[in-house]
Amino acid sequence: MAQSMTGFASETVSIADWNLSLECKSVNSRFLDLNIKLPEALRASEATIRQKVSEALNRGKVEINVRLERGEAVSDLIVNHSRLNALKVALAQIEKEFPNSPAPSQLDLLMSPGIWSGDSPDRDLLTSTCEQAVSSLLKSLVEMRKDEGDKLVSLIKDRCQQISAMVAEYRDQLPALREAQRQRVVDRLQNLNIAHDQDRLEEELAFLASKADVAEELDRLDAHVTAVNDAASGKGPCGRRLDFLMQELNREANTLGSKTTSLVTTNTSVDLKVIIEQMREQVQNLE
Fold this sequence. Notes:
Order of helices and strands: EEEHEEHHEHHHHH
Largest sheet: 4 strands, mixed
Helix content: 55-70%
């Protein structure tokens, strides 16, 4: 099943008097680009979290932010005097080296890491809880990405139908377009009122018809549309394959335009490229 690379998920779990908050967001990327922000108490879990993300996702720029905070109702926090004294010594040294620097406020001191102390959650419990929460977080993210992927696939298939309809309509007009091209050449010769070899004229008309023949391009457009539908309906990641097919579709539309012999051909080529570009933008979001 196709997945979008865009998604967001969040989880919050409680451990005694502590709250563990997790957020995860993903956007487009050619590869799996993972950025994890963890509190110091959970640094050892980074490798496990990376492994979990790699198993759940194939592509996307993914950011995971984990915060560990005391509950608002907890009031038994105390000042870590040892840490505060060390900070006091460090500030005295800074003041000596930089006498004109502004002194920190009391609020600045209280916000310094390690100043507040209290009961810390059990390290093993914290680690296991975090890793379980990450699994739940990734499950929610994948579900959201699948929902977005389903919507994108539906839009892509709708545009495939538009391309197929345009190709079929243009193919029906080909005999009339070829006859119109032939008649234009004949009319020009008649207007010039000069003698000409009928056999040579037929050869030139056949050469022009061959040069302007777009049957092969139309067949390839149909084949590429079928390949797009098959890839989008598959169970695995399809973004890279679809991106390649968009290039092939655009190549055929450009070739069709280069063989133009009428305004109908030009307009068909332009309309095809507009739809293909819309599809390409949607494909960029698929994993």
